[in-house]
Amino acid sequence: MQDNKDLNTMNLIIDIGNTQVKTAVFDTDNKLIDLQKNTIENILKDIEHQADKFAVTYAIVSKVGKEIEGLEAFFEAQAIPLFYLTAHCKLPFSLQYKTPETIGADRLALVAGSLLYRQNQNMLIIDAGTCVTYDFIDKNNVYRGGAISPGLFLRYKSLNDYTANLPLLKPENKPVELIGDSTQSSIQSGVIYGLVTEIEAIIVKYKLKFKDLTVFLTGGDEKLLDSYIKSKIFVNSNSLLMEGMNYILNLNK
User: How far is CA 95 from CA 138, 140, 143, 220, 221, in A?
Assistant: First the structure.
C-alpha cells in the first residue's frame, strides 16, 4: 500500500508517449480524479489548467517521446517540484537489468502499477501501444526484463512503407476474419492475428517457465486485442501506467 505522509498532496502525472501525451491528477487518497490526452504541441495548456485547478503540489514525468517545450519553466515558476522517472528513482521493486539507464520510464511505471493489484507473484505486464512491451517481475519483487515488439500501428505502417503496392490500413471496428479474401482483409488478418498469436505464445512460454503467473494487458490497443486473446488476463486499459507513476512519485517525495 502507498503511504501518503502529506495529507495536502495533489499529484500531477505526465506521460509523454510516442503518439500522444496523457496527464492525470491523483488526490490524497491516490484516486485518479482527472485525466487528459492531447498532442505534445498542445498539452502544456492542459497541464497549466490542471496544476491551477487542483492546486498540484508535486509532478512526475515519464518520457519516451519528445520534450514538452516550456514544461520545466512552468513548474519552476510555480515552485512545484518536478521529478523525472528513471531507473535511478526509488522504486517499489529491485532491478535485475544489465542496462538500467536505457530502460523506458513507461516500463518501470507499469511494473510499479501492477504491484498495486498483486503482491509476491510472478507477473507479466503487456503494454500494447505503438510498441508492445513485455515486462516480467518475479514473486521476489525483482524486475527481470522482458521484450519489445512492434505494435499494431508499426505493423500496418511497415507494410505500407516497405512495399510498392500495399495500402496503409488501421484497425477496423469489426471482427477480422482469419482468412482474408482481399488484399485489405489479408493485411488485417496478418497484422491482427500475427500480434495476437505472438502475445498468446509469449504468455504460454512464461507460464511454462514460471508457475502461478498473473498477466496484465494494458495500453491503447488493449480493448481491440482483448477480444481475440484466449488466455486469462487482468485487463487495465488506461490507468495502470498512471497509477504506477503516482506510486513512484509518492516514494520519491
Answer: 11, 11, 5, 26, 27
